Amino acid sequence: MATKKTLKKAPAAAASAWDKVKIARDAKRPHVWDFIEGIFDDFEELHGDRLVNDDAAMVAGFGTIGGEKVLLLGHHKGATVEENMAANFGMANPDGYRKAMRLGKLAERFGNPIVTFVDTPGAYPGREAEERGQAEAIAKSLEFFSALKTPIVVVVTGEGGSGGALAIAVGDRILMMENAVYSVISPEGCAGILWRDGAKAPEAAEALKITAPDLLSLGAIDEIIPEPAGGAHKNHKRACANVKKAVLKALKELKGIALDELVEKRYAKIRSYGNFY
Amino acid sequence: MSWFEPKAEKPKIPPAKALWAICPKCKSHMAKEVWKNNNSICPKCNYHGRLPVRERIRQIADESTFVELFREVSYSDHLGFHDATGDYKSKVDATIAKTGETESIVVGTCEIGGHRAMLGVMDFSFMGGSLGSGTGERIARACEQAIAERRALVLFCASGGARMHEGILSLMQMTKTSAAIGRLKAAGLPYISVCTDPTTGGVSASFAMLGDINITEPKALIGFAGRRVIENTIHQKLPADFQTSEYLEKHGFIDKIVERKDLKPFIAKMLNYWGF
């Protein structure tokens, strides 16, 4: 019989895909500002896409992490209802992706590596988002970050929601937290289409293979960052320490690679994605 | 004359849908022959309907110049995916048997009005033109071969988006195709994207919107998120022409709406302007 102690220590790997979806969406899970405060020595947020807007769902700015001067890009979901509303629940508009590219270009110019924190249900499905080219903004981001001449470390911290996540998840090292999920479509969306019943989301989550171990075995990510027992929401400090360690290790590995070689290697990695006959 | 003459056999009347075509945009009825003879274009509203992939190639490539490539690259059911309606493998195998195609895009080299090109045409009748690993691989290889042979890239897009039966690797095809197109452009080669009805989801958010010029046919559906998803999110009705070719042109994301009959000369003309 499981004692309380062993239950507490039960590995999260035993959880179902749907359990992980719930953990990944937990409001108490560390969000981008928790990571900024917990990991960075200093940080200056910068705003705006220089076209129409500043998208609060996309945080961008320069900061120092373990002595490394980097550009940070991350979805901002917010932890309270007020924050959720202000940040549009982490669903970026085209303006957010264009801000990310604008500052990405700056990072390339001044040799700053980029660290991204991915946590979004998806790109915002709105009227103005479409009118301002949501599809074009995501497409451009993929093309842009694939060839950018500076190291890019991606951390999927919570929900990796489809194209809206992918737009800032192209890089040289793709790290994923143990209880994060990353999927081509939300389990609810997939269940609605293929099961004709959104309530079948747990089955869809299982079928889509969206957990960190699944993605590692599929070659879509490079490394899993362990979380404290029960999940990152139980211990922000420990979670931040683990993320910091993994990010610094990745930055150190990438630092020694000449930029042309780095971009070649990134292309080779991107080129290898897939499974076909 | 017998009282009980055998009843004359009733002439077989074909079902209505075998005779009539209904325009999916304006809902007007016409004889199927009219629709077909008008190149699958509605004579009432000028909606440009979906063309079979081989017919599209016939209309765009110069006669007997098209050489198909990478036909051996096909899908793999690496997740063993099955849903309420069955398993992925049987669905694709049935599609392959029905269409004779082995992926949702056909690519190959050809000449377009005498210009050397790499042509790719997506097939909406193949799993809704969805972007699988095989689709992404064919596009990436097409880009690389176009670079090696100094050819312009022309892609006809028609897709509902990513192929969810292939999970995360389907999403990764968006990056793969976008990166390969980036390389083609960096090599100084042009890319013309033709967004035909429909071009949505993960395909619109990758190679479809990355053309040096993006063109389309009249009244195509082009967009990222589905209309219902947006309406449910913003709790508003969207305008009737939302996410149409005309709407996108107005908002600056389409260079030109080109009638089907003018597509080939238009593409050739642009390639000529750019010295290809």
Report on this structure.
The complex is a heterodimer of chains A (277) and B (276). With 277 residues, chain A is an alpha/beta fold. Chain A starts with a helix and ends in a 6-residue tail after the last helix. Chain A is 45% helix and 17% strand. The model of chain A is unreliable at 1-12 (pLDDT under 50). In chain A, strands 1, 2, 3, 4, 5, 6, 7 and 8 form an 8-stranded mixed beta sheet that branches. Chain A has helices spanning 4-9, 17-25, 32-39, 81-86, 94-109, 127-131, 134-147, 162-166, 187-195, 201-208, 212-218, 236-255, 259-271; strands spanning 42-45, 58-65, 68-75, 114-120, 152-161, 173-177, 181-183, 223-225. The longest helix of chain A is centred in the last third of the chain and has 20 residues, at 236-255. Chain A has one domain: 2-enoyl-CoA Hydratase, Chain A, domain 1, CATH 3.90.226. Chain A is built from 13 helices and 8 strands. In chain A, helix 3 (32-39) crosses helix 12 (236-255), helix 5 (94-109) runs parallel beside helix 7 (134-147) and helix 9 crosses helix 10. Chain B has 276 residues and is α/β, with parallel strands linked by helices. Chain B has 2 domains: 14-47, no CATH class; 48-273, Alpha-Beta Complex (2-enoyl-CoA Hydratase, Chain A, domain 1). Chain B contains 10 helices and 12 strands. Chain B has helices spanning 16-19, 32-37, 53-60, 88-99, 133-149, 167-186, 201-204, 227-234, 245-250, 260-273; strands at residues 20-22, 29-31, 67-69, 82-83, 86-87, 105-112, 115-122, 152-159, 191-200, 213-216, 222-223, 256-257. In chain B, strands 3, 6, 7, 8, 9, 10, 11 and 12 form an 8-stranded mixed beta sheet that branches. In chain B, strands 1-2 form a two-stranded antiparallel ribbon. Chain B has a two-stranded antiparallel ribbon with strand order 4-5. The model of chain B has no long low-confidence stretch (mean pLDDT 95). Chains A and B meet through helix 6, helix 7, helix 8, helix 9 and helix 10 of A and strand 4, helix 5, helix 6, helix 7 and strand 11 of B.
